Amino acid sequence: MADKANMSLTFRTLFRRFTTGVAVVGVAGGDGPVGATVNSLTAVSLDPMLLLFCARNGSRTAGHIQETGAFSVNILTAEQEAVSRHYAGEPGDKPDWTWHAFDETVRLEGANATFVCRLERVHPAGDHAIIVGRVTDMAGPETPGTPLLYHGGGYAALPWPGEAPEPVEPVSFWWTG
User: Fold this and answer.
1) Is residue 153 part of a domain?
2) Is the CB of residue 73 less than 8 Å from the CB of residue 51?
3) What is the CATH number of the domain that holds 41?
4) What is the pTM of this model?
5) How many domains does the chain have?
6) Of all residues in the chain, what percent are helix, strand and coil, respectively (each to 5)?
7) In this model, does residue 177 exceed pLDDT 50?
8) 3-state SS, residue 99
């Protein structure tokens, strides 16, 4: 069996082959909104509506979520890559974006979708915590933008040359197994 460091590197390398969407979790803070980029977003349940994401232990955003009990999940468009990089902690110029008050928390202007959540539960999980939120409100543009994707350790976008494809009826594939 390989040593722990090599196993961790292999684990990370192999998981980079899994393409995900990208979201920014936002929390209303005393000095303005705080946020974190996540790609571990998962819908958990329709009744009640629950979602989850994972946050690194010691995350400032996760701490604010536990203090306030409310947060938003903002699914990003390809045009919001700089926002994602900023909230992932990458150095560089602060991108231009706007947060708006939304129920008990904040929403990111221009996001493909925003879900407002009340903190349902936090599960410790190794060097991260699994944060479960109960969706209390949601919003999104009538026509979605091209989604921002993460693959192979970098950002990508779907090559939609024009109109986005027609949405698929969720009932046709929602948790059939």
Assistant:
1) no
2) yes
3) 2.30.110.10
4) 0.86
5) 1
6) 20, 40, 40
7) no
8) strand
Q: Which residues of 96-108 are buried (b: 16+ CB within 10 A; e: fewer)?
A: ebebeebbbbbbb
Nearest to 99 by CA among 37, 28, 148, 21: 28
Contact between 53 and 25 (Cβ < 8 Å):
yes
Q: Which residue(s) pair with 147 in the sheet?
A: 77
How many angstroms separate the CA atoms of 158 and 172, rounded? 22
Q: What is the pLDDT of residues 46-67, one digit of tens each?
A: 999 999 999 999 999 999 999 9
Query: Is 152 a member of any domain?
Result: no
Interval 110-146: pLDDT, tens: 999 999 999 999 999 999 999 999 999 999 999 899 9
Domain span including residue 57? 20-145
